[in-house]
Every structure is written in structure tokens, then in C-alpha cells.
Here is the input.
Amino acid sequence: MTTEEVIARFKAKGALLEGHFVLSSGLHSTNYLQCALVLQYPQEAEGFGRAIASHFKDDKIRLVASPAIGGIVIGHEVARALGARFIWTERENGKMTLRRGFSVIPGEKTLVVEDVITTGGSTLETIKSLQVAGADVIAAASIIDRSMGEADVGVRRIALATLEVPSVDPSVCDSCERGEPAIKPGSGTRQ
Ligand SMILES: [Zn+2]
Here is the structure.
């Protein structure tokens, strides 16, 4: 699956919008990306899961793990495509941990999957918590890479699409300069 195909699927489901947006950071952007809006369609999630899995056919992955909440849907689909087990990590007192009785078999070959990698921070935290539990984390993957390939998580990493979502301070925003109203997405109402 190419970057263009991924972007087309996101756009078709309204998960990648173009316009003038206020991001949760307060910065303004001409793009808004929300993976959950494409992953709400199980057939799309399945397609992305298969595409990610195709990169790891020869790696004998036994376990796929994802950081909650964003990674759960896509991680589950990757695990299904690889015939692997699937678990997730979540924060407890700010620290990424395995809860719910999830455990790792020492040396278990593990793939960490997220929906979007921006800095690689949550993937890295997930990898570390799995390594502490004894997993052999051999790679990481995401649908979207917003780091332009820069995020280093210490293991081999792939993404289906590399996508720059530039954001700027409102004081230097071209769209604001032109007087275009900014939309705050994700309010739960349809545009
Ligand atoms: Zn603006």
C-alpha cells in the first residue's frame, strides 16, 4: 500500500481534512488527521492491518502490542493478519504498563503497532515496558509517520505513509492572515 493509497482512504472517510484548523496544541494547521475516523470502518482497519503485516511475514511474530487507546484497533488487525496474540499497554500513574493480567513469554518475538507516530515517544515507552517484561521486540510499525522518518525507537520501524502535517503559531498563520475562520475539529459534531 503506497502513501497515496493510504491518503486516499483517509480522505474518503473524512479522516484527513484540508482547511484551517486549530489543533489540540493550540497551533494552526491546513490539515487535520484523525485516524479513528478511518478505523471506525472495520474493513479499512483490516486493510491497513494486512498491509502492515505484509512487512513482517518472515519475522515469526508471536505477539503484537499497542499503546492504548490509539493503537488498539490497528494492532488487533495486524495481529489477526499475522496469526499472533494481541495485547495493549496503558498508563498507570503516568507510566506505560501491562495491566488486565496481560503477560509476555520471555523471548516472545514482538511487534509494536501504533496508528500514528509523531515523535515516537509512546511507541518507545511501549517497547521499553515490553522489554522489561521479557519480550524480544524486533520491530515497530504505524499507519502514519508524521516524523518524516526521523523518529528513532531503537528497533526497525516501518510506516504505510509518511505525512507532514505542518503547524504554525496563530500569529504567523497564513490562513488567519487571509481572515479565514479556524475550525476546532474533534468536538463530536459533524462538519
Ligand atoms: Zn490560523
Summary: Residues 20, 28, 170, 173, 175-176, 182 surround zinc ion (CB under 6 Å). The chain has six helices and nine strands. The longest strand covers residues 136-145.
